[in-house]
Inverse folding.
């Protein structure tokens, strides 16, 4: 449904509830700075929790974080 410089966003369905969700997939990182910025964004969303003006984080796949690979 959207594409940015660092990621793509797809429309998805949460299996547990059937809710419609946005699924953000990071593209290949060109530098360690981009990689760390992506991790920082995820940590920030976790720390902020639920707020009416912030996208709710439902989950994250981090299986390839150590290798800095695409999912």
């Amino acid at each position: 449904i959207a594409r940015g410089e660092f990621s793509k966003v797809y429309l998805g369905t949460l299996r547990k509830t059937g809710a419609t969700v946005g699924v953000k997939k990071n593209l290949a990182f060109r530098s360690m700075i981009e990689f760390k910025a992506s991790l920082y964004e995820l940590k920030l969303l976790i720390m902020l929790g639920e707020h009416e003006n912030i996208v709710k984080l439902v989950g994250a796949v981090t299986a390839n974080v150590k290798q800095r690979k695409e999912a």
User: Anything to note?
Assistant: The first helix runs from residue 32 to 48. The mean pLDDT is 82.
